[in-house]
Automatic annotation (TrEMBL):
GO terms for biological process: Golgi to plasma membrane transport; intracellular protein transport; vesicle tethering involved in exocytosis. GO terms for cellular component: exocyst; plasma membrane. It comes from Cyprinus carpio carpio. Component of the exocyst complex involved in the docking of exocytic vesicles with fusion sites on the plasma membrane. The lineage of its organism: Eukaryota, Metazoa, Chordata, Craniata, Vertebrata. This is Exocyst complex component.
């Protein structure tokens, strides 16, 4: 309250406060003075004592300084040694630490050095394993060091480098096998061909000797007569000769790359890349050269490349796990097979040489056998061979068409002369000719057929042999081969030979004599057909009595050719008659006849007589031949007479002929009489009665009507079956009558 009052707003309050404060200060000063006076003596005593001690302290200080100096001098060496010890201890500790750390780092460095060596020696798979150990085991122990961090950062880059290098090696490998596919395929196909040849030889040995089976139970391992494997007996030789894909190509880049990508966890990428590249290579391999069909080497190279490709794939399939799968190879094969078949269809169609087609077939068989040995299905290839067989047959037919054509062109179309027994045997050894009458004749003698017959027969047999060559190694039964041979032979006879015969018959230079010889030839060839069937039967050992055995159609071929030749004889006879008729030069306004037949007609009749004498050469050594030759001669003679009668009638009724005199009719009558005399002289034996003369009956009745001028009888008996002029047509008689009347009315007019 007192202090508060100081600040109260009272008059002189501050002054009173200051006075009281001064008074209090004075009181304290007095108390302090009292206190100092009370302790002063003690202070003085203490000062005195301190002064006494000062001298001792100075003395002691000197002693201490001296002792310190001496101690410092003595401890300086110890301190130096102690510092040296401390420094050594620090170095020792550092060295121990360093050694300890180095012991941790050295394995890392050693592994990294090992990694570098592996990379330099291209042992990438081992390098990846080393990287894995570095990352998982060694580097984590010393990860605090910078060099380890750098090392850890380098490892992914090294992995990428390894991937790139291994991929580059894989690309080189793919390029290498693309180049070596030809050689690999050639080796594989050669081995397959050797194996097939060996099996064929063993099979022939089995056929020749049935004492012991030459095959084991699996029908794959041939045995020799000692019961040992035939392959085992030649094992050393085979070991020296047999080469595999692995012998020709280094597959290590594939294995290495596969392992690398597997370790890197990127196997799927590698598999996809490999399969994609192989598909591309397959398409390239399957692309043929444009001129492949020109030589067998083109086909062989094509097949070698394909076989090489799939041999490599088969090796990869079995040597790696999952890089390629059976499904993948089957997909590739199916794609390739479709392409191969399409290519072969196209290129084989260009082949015109049967030898080339046959070699192509052999290549396809070896190609199929080779790939079948690696487990690829090849049934479609053997089906393709049936198409190639048709192409082969077509080329054979074209080739034999030229052969037949040459034979026909070189033939002289005259009977074969044989001077002695040796020549006779030479002919009958080439052609099955047997004739008891001819055999009894003395040499020299003539065989009825011409030289082309045995040549044609021999060439048909050659064709059968050529066709048989294609059937070899097709894994077909004897019945199927027999059917193939018969069908191809039928095509040869019914198409090729038939066409050649038809063309031959139609040739302008083939005369009546040649046509007659062709008829004789076809007759003998027809009889030889049964020997051709026996020939095929002997080759195939298939009985002709088999239900499904195809018969040869040669009989119809040669019959058709004979009929064509006969028809051509009739046609050529008529053409020759027309040529003689064109030489006729009647004087239609003559007053009376010359009293003898026209010269052209006599020449024509003489020609016909000599011509029909040729028909005596037709085969007539048995009843069938006699009947045939008589029929041909009779038909030809009847056809000639009818054509001659028709031509003469047309001459009379020609619209260009306006007038005709009785003298001309009489001359014409003399010519017709000569025709009738020719018909009645039996130029060809076998006609009954006046059958041949009836060809001129129309002319005879017409001319008699005008010569006798018996119009009353004609008109009275017209339409009666017993009419004397039954064959005279009213329009014909009227036309001739008009010409005669015009002559009477206008005798000076031109005829």
């Amino acid at each position: 309250m007192q202090w508060k009052s100081v600040y109260d707003d009272q008059p002189n309050a501050h002054k009173r406060f200051m006075e009281k404060l001064d008074a209090r200060i004075r009181n304290h000063d007095r108390e302090i003075e009292k206190m100092c006076n009370f302790h002063h003596q003690g202070f003085v005593d203490a000062i005195t004592e301190l002064l006494k001690v000062r001298a001792d302290a100075e003395k002691l200080m000197g002693q201490v300084s001296d002792t310190n100096r001496r101690l410092q001098d003595a401890g300086r060496e110890v301190t130096a040694q102690t510092e040296e010890v401390i420094r050594c201890r620090i170095q020792q500790r550092n060295m121990a630490t360093t050694v300890e750390k180095l012991q941790l780092c050295i394995p890392v460095l050693e592994m990294y050095s090992k990694l570098k060596e592996q990379l330099e020696s291209k042992r990438y798979y081992s390098a990846l394993k080393t990287m894995e150990q570095l990352e998982n085991i060694y580097i984590p122990r010393v990860s605090q060091y910078r060099f380890c961090q750098i090392m850890a950062e380098t490892l992914p880059k090294l992995r990428e480098e390894i991937k790139e290098i291994s991929m580059s090696d894989l690309k080189d490998f793919l390029e290498s096998i693309r180049k070596h596919s030809d050689k690999i395929g050639e080796t594989a196909m050669r081995q397959a061909q050797q194996h097939r040849t060996f099996n064929s030889a063993v099979q022939k040995q089995v056929t020749l000797s049935c004492a012991k089976p030459l095959y084991g139970l699996n029908s794959r391992t041939p045995l020799n007569h000692n019961g040992l494997s035939a392959e085992a007996t030649d094992e050393e030789e085979m070991d020296e000769e047999v080469l595999t894909a692995q012998d020709l190509v280094d597959f290590s880049p594939v294995y290495r790359c596969l392992h690398i990508y597997t370790v890197l966890g990127d196997r799927e990428t590698f598999e996809n890349y490999y399969r994609k590249q192989r598909k591309k290579q397959a398409r390239l391999v399957l692309q043929p050269q444009s001129n492949m069909h020109e030589t067998v080497e083109g086909y062989r190279k094509y097949f070698n490349q394909i076989v090489g490709f799939f041999v490599v794939e088969d090796h990869i399939l079995h040597a790696t796990q999952g890089l390629v799968t059976r499904a993948f190879t089957d997909e590739l094969w199916n794609m390739a097979l479709s392409k191969i078949i399409a290519v072969l269809r196209t290129h084989s169609s260009y082949c015109s040489d049967p030898d080339l087609v046959l070699e192509l077939k052999n290549l396809i068989v070896i190609f199929a056998d080779t790939l079948q040995g690696y487990g690829f299905p090849v049934n479609r290839l053997f089906d393709l061979l049936f198409e190639v067989r048709d192409q082969y047959n077509e080329t054979l037919l074209k080739k034999w068409a030229l052969v037949f054509r040459d034979i026909f062109e070189q033939d002289n179309y005259s009977p074969i002369p044989v001077e002695n027994e040796e020549e006779y045997k030479s002919v009958v050894s080439r052609f099955p000719f047997h004739d008891a009458e001819i055999e009894k004749q003395q040499f020299p003698k003539k065989l009825p057929m011409s030289q082309s017959v045995p040549q044609i027969y021999a060439q048909v047999k050659e064709f059968i042999y050529a066709s048989l060559k294609f059937s070899e190694s097709l894994h077909r039964s004897s019945t199927e081969i027999d059917d193939m041979l018969r069908k191809s032979t039928n095509l040869l006879l019914t198409r090729t030979l038939s066409s050649c015969l038809q063309n031959l018959i139609k040739k302008p230079h083939i005369g009546l004599t040649e046509l007659v010889q062709i008829i004789i030839n076809t007759t003998h060839l027809e009889h030889a057909c049964k020997y051709l069937e026996d020939f095929i039967t002997n080759i195939t050992n298939v009985s002709p009595e088999t239900v499904h055995t195809t018969r040869l159609y040669g009989l119809s071929t040669f019959k058709d050719a004979r009929h064509a030749a006969e028809g051509e004889i009739y046609t050529k006879l008529n053409q020759k008659i027309d040529e003689f008729i064109q030489l006729a030069d009647y004087e239609w306004g003559m007053s009376e006849s010359d009293g003898r037949a026209s010269g052209y007609l006599m020449d024509l009749i003489n020609f016909l007589r000599s011509t029909f004498q040729v028909f005596t050469h037709l085969p007539n050594n048995n009843n069938d031949h006699a009947a045939m030759s008589g029929k041909v001669a009779q038909t030809a003679c009847m056809s000639a007479c009818k054509h001659l009668a028709t031509s003469l009638m047309q001459m009379l009724l020609d619209t260009e002929l306006k007038q005709i005199s009785m003298g001309a009719i009489q001359q014409f009558n003399l010519d017709v009489m000569q025709c009738e005399l020719f018909a009645s002289s039996e130029p060809v034996p076998g006609f009954q009665g006046d059958t041949l003369q009836l060809a001129f009956i129309d002319l005879r009745q017409l001319l008699d009507l005008f010569m006798v001028w018996d119009w009353s009888t004609y008109l009275a008996d017209y339409g009666q079956p017993t009419s004397k002029y039954l064959r005279v047509n009213p329009s014909t008689a009227l036309a001739l009558l008009e010409k005669y009347v015009l002559f009477l009315l206008f005798p000076s007019a031109q005829c």
